[in-house]
Design goal:
The chain is an alpha+beta fold and 101 residues long. The chain has helices at 11-26, 31-40, 45-52, 56-69, 87-100, and strands at residues 42-44, 72-76, 81-85. Strands 1-3-2 form a three-stranded antiparallel beta sheet. Helix 1 packs antiparallel against helix 4 (56-69). The protein is globular, with a radius of gyration of 16 Å.
């Protein structure tokens, strides 16, 4: 059996989601966000704006794509939205990437 025969209809959406995750995590605009959150574990939108130097619209787009990967999660309160780094998810993705190398 050839490898190309093993891709099923259910595999295609998973592959698509995997590409979205890899694309979001490898985006050069995401790197300063990820690094800051790795060091500080959580931050507000204002913290990230100040420390990454990104414009608020760009930061908002990046955070949206990173939250979709579940490497970053957001918690909104009456006062602010805080972003948290999900170390477990990040390490899981890193482990899977290493398996392909």
């Amino acid at each position: 059996m050839n490898a190309w025969n093993t891709i099923t209809r259910t595999s295609l959406p998973k592959l698509g989601r995997a590409l979205v995750v890899l694309d979001a995590l490898s985006d050069e605009l995401s790197i300063p966000i990820l690094e800051y959150l790795k060091q500080n574990r959580s931050a507000s939108f204002l913290d990230l704006t100040v420390h990454t130097g990104l414009e608020s619209s760009t930061l908002d787009e990046q955070l949206e794509s990173l939250c979709a990967t579940k490497v970053i999660r957001s918690v909104t309160t009456v006062y602010e939205t805080r972003y948290y780094f999900n170390t477990r998810r990040y390490l899981r993705i890193a482990m899977l990437i290493k398996q392909f190398n």
